Amino acid sequence: MKITNDVPRTFTGMHMLVIMIAFFAIIIAVNVAMASLARSSWSGLVVKNSYVAGQDFNRRLKESREQLALGYKGTLTTSQDEITYALVDAQGKAMRIASVRASFSHPVYEAADWSIDLVSRDGKTFSGRHGLRDGVWIVTTESDIGLARPYAEVRRVTISGGVIQ
């Protein structure tokens, strides 16, 4: 027969010290990891001078409304590694375009941004090859159609498997 002496274990100051050190070590480690990820992925710069950008806002808004009143509609399509863009007028007729530039901006990770000059197929449809990465992108297409400023369209798209969803 075995006799056991059940002595209750006590919670000592040493136990509390170990728990507190472990708690704060985890908090500090998570904060350092998050801060280093944030610092390496985004510069934090939205505009160089917010005062000037604010003054410029109304002018850009007016230009955007004037452009929208034209009734033009651009079509952007992708397939695996090809980007295609075409523009039609308010009556649905294909427009002649001198040049097209497509800029892909990642909403969060600025270092992933890239642009491509699309090449004319027939003066109305433009295309280019690029390995499209999956994810959410803000695509700005700027077309030279003979206006004072390029005709610009901005759209937010999701790319999956190289195709716009």
Task: Show the helix and strand layout.
Blueprint lengths: L12 H29 L8 H20 L3 E7 L2 E7 L10 E7 L8 E7 L4 E5 L5 E10 L6 E10 L2 E2 L1
Antiparallel strand pairs: 1-2, 2-5, 3-4, 3-6, 4-5, 6-7, 7-8
InterPro entries: FixH (IPR008620), FixH_proteobacterial (IPR018037)
Keywords: Membrane, Transmembrane, Transmembrane helix
Protein name: FixH family protein
What does this structure look like?
The protein has helices spanning 13-41, 50-69; strands spanning 73-79, 82-88, 99-105, 114-120, 125-129, 135-144, 151-160, 163-164. The chain has two helices and eight strands, in the order H-H-E-E-E-E-E-E-E-E. Strands 1-2-5-4-3-6-7-8 form an eight-stranded antiparallel beta sheet, with no helix packed on it. The longest helix has 29 residues, at 13-41. It is of the alpha+beta class and 165 residues long. The chain has a domain at 72-164: Immunoglobulins (Immunoglobulin-like, Sandwich).
Head-to-tail CA distance between termini: 74 Å
Helical proportion?
A: 25-40%
Strand-pairing-aware structural class: alpha+beta
Rg (CA only) = 28 Å
**SS field, number of helical segments:** 2
- Principal-axes geometry comes out as elongated
Mind telling me which CATH architecture of the domain at 72-164 this is?
A: Sandwich
Report the sheet-strand fraction.
25-35%
- CATH superfamily heading of the domain at 72-164: Immunoglobulins
What top-tier CATH class of the domain at 72-164 fits best?
Answer: Mainly Beta
How confident is the prediction overall: mean pLDDT?
Answer: 87
* Beta-strand segment tally: 8
Task: Describe the largest sheet.
Answer: 8 strands, antiparallel
Q: How is the CATH topology of the domain at 72-164 named?
A: Immunoglobulin-like
Low-confidence stretches: none
Organism: Rhizobium herbae
Protein name: FixH family protein
Transmembrane segments: 16-38
Keywords: Membrane, Transmembrane, Transmembrane helix
